[in-house]
Specification:
It is a single chain. This protein is mostly helical and about 140 residues long. It contains three helices and two strands. A two-stranded antiparallel sheet has the order 1-2. β1 and β2 form a beta hairpin. The longest helix is centred in the last third of the chain and has 43 residues. The chain is elongated. It starts with a helix and ends in a 14-residue tail after the last helix.
């Protein structure tokens, strides 16, 4: 499980590194927001990669190994209940992170649309004064 944990942590922390680098670039110049778009895309890909690797490892890889059984002294925890518990924990963690990500993106999208609507209201073209036609 140590190797799987390391393999799953590498994409997670690479995406987090990109996020923090994007924040640094944003603080230096507020017009640079391309890093956040790349981060959002890679965040979703990293979550899907994590889920895929977890299911393949816990569902198909570990059940085929020779040493099936529980042995605390040998460090062997390759039994169905522990495998499914670990898989459920990983899936729940990924679902929680995606839930927070989606809520964050929706909040950001709503704020952006409200800002755009308020800008349109303040910059709306003024109605031209009509010339009064005098009838004689």
């Amino acid at each position: 499980l140590h190797r799987l944990g390391l393999v799953l942590l590498v994409p997670h922390y690479l995406v987090e590194l990109l996020f923090h680098a994007s924040r640094l670039f944003y603080f230096s110049d507020e017009n640079k927001q391309k890093g956040f778009t790349l981060w959002a895309l890679l965040f979703v890909i990293a979550r899907l990669l994590t889920l895929t690797l977890s299911v393949l490892t816990f569902g198909f890889g570990l059940p085929r190994t020779e040493n099936q059984g529980f042995s605390l002294g040998d460090g062997n925890f390759n039994v169905l209940t522990i495998r499914m518990t670990c898989l459920a924990a990983i899936c729940l963690t990924q679902a929680w992170m995606m839930w927070k990500f989606i809520n964050f993106q929706l909040k950001k999208w709503r704020e952006h649309s409200q800002n755009q609507a308020s800008k349109k209201k303040t910059v709306s073209p003024k109605s031209k004064p009509h010339k009064r036609e005098t009838t004689r």
